[in-house]
Amino acid sequence: xxxxxxxxxxxxxxxxxxxxxxxxxxxxxxxxxxxxxxxxxxxxxxxxxxxxxxxxxxxxxxxxxxxxxxxxxxxxxxxxxxxxxxxxxxxxxxxxxxxxxxxxxxxxxxxxx
Length: 113
Prior knowledge:
Helix content is 35%, strand content 19%. Helix 1 (51-62) crosses helix 2 (66-79). The mean pLDDT is 84. By secondary structure, it is α+β, with helices and mostly antiparallel strands. It starts with 37 loop residues before the first strand and ends with a strand. It has a domain at 33-110: CATH 3.30.1390.10. A 3-stranded antiparallel β-sheet has the order 2-1-3. The protein has helices at residues 51-62, 66-79, 89-101, and strands spanning 38-44, 81-88, 105-110.
């Protein structure tokens, strides 16, 4: 068996063909949707949940004071929605899942959209 270094000079193989290499560029990840960029957790108004229950959930889940929870609840009630958190994507997904478990309507969207 002969090592690649042992080939005689000028020998390009039996058929005389040379091998050509190409560099392929891979697409770069979209940094705008990376896990670390901020995502907003949005709670939407619904006709089912009582206002004091929504305040309770905000206090329990986000650690809001009673005053802050009530202000956010009133924003949901009056404006139809409230941004209750701005977090990295994974944590925002966690909050949306928890809000759904409490029976609230919630979504998330990338901050700045």
